[in-house]
Amino acid sequence: PADPTIAITPADVKRWLGLDLSTEKIVQILESLEFKCEITQLPNYPITVCATTPDHRLDIGTGVIGQADLMEEIARIYGYHNITETRMADEIPPQRSNPTLDIDERVRDILARAGVQEVITYRVTTPEAEARRLPPGTEPSDKPYLRLANVINQERTVMRQSLLASVLEIVERNVRVRDRIALFEIGEIFLSSEGGSSGTDALPDELPRIVIALTGSRAPAAWQGGDPTPMDFYDLKGVVETLLDGLHVPVQYEPASHPSLHPGKTAHLLAGERRLGVMGELHPEVAAQYDLPETPVLVAKINMDTLYELVPARYEITPVPVFPPIVEDLALVMNNDVPAAQVEFLIRQTGGATLADVTLFDVYRGDKLGPGRKSLAYHLTYQAPDKTLTDKDVAKVRYRIVQRLERELGAQLRS
Predict the structure, then answer these.
(1) How confident is the model at residue 63 (pLDDT cuts 50, 70, 90)?
(2) pTM listed for this prediction
(3) Which residues are paired to 207 by β-bridges?
(4) What span, in angstroms and rounded, lies between the C-alpha atoms of 371 and 300?
């Protein structure tokens, strides 16, 4: 093998070891170890010692590794006891974070605090296992699966196209021994690339997803009691809202349909005009294909690649108010097909900065209202950051809210 030649300068020795050694001293130390040294100096470059390694020193590397090896030899011969303690004076390298990984960790922390446990499942499966996530007779996706070239297990032959199917398998296995299941997974699905190269070497599109699954009792039994009521759509909605509020991503909900979810109990998550995901109760025909209990199984699927773009790098905060609030109730009668989220949006938008909070606390339907009508009752909290509000101030805001709801939604103030 060729004997490597390594170039070092006195500045390198100063930076690595903190020693002010002359070029002659460096050459003396290295030649005592049978290195062949040559001093060179090019215009506009510092004096450099080029040390050729003796043939019996096979432990000396090349490049930066070789420089580190020479520093060890210089420090050893010079004497470790002669190296004085000095403060680190080198420039700290720039700190570059990975935003997507940071968001993943924030998602994990928020869901863990909400009582949801993370699982990690296999990324390889079979088409038959994934087909269970769809009702019988539903046509699966026409995208071809990415098949493994060296299959060692007939239950792991292709790369998965659905994270939901993987999580449902975990729910199926654990629901036999636990009364309450609350799980989530952050992982990728693998789809054949449409814009990439063709052939066997084409890399797939790895799309990040998150799936949340809930089933069982609302609170586990304990010596202080519990809540055996099965979790429903709104328990899942609370978990999703906790996650997105923690990430400062405002969303709206609209009725939707999905082949894996129960008709009439499914909603899309919308961030403006962008569809962030879908949530709802598992379709009964899908649940029948798994060994699941009779209690509802609630699932949410969120596109992480869209979520990465929506999470703000910075967000505004407001100081804790020092002036007292005014709380009043507002009951409105409107058509059944008017979403409560739209009503709340208009209330908040019209109320402006004076309206600190809006909470829906009652939904009523009955003969007194007439067919196709419902009543929504809200707690409205008025609070100003700079003064104590009067009844006249609140009455003006309330009037604007009622007038806009009447004009845009046909709502009527309930007497």
Answers:
(1) confident
(2) 0.72
(3) 189
(4) 33
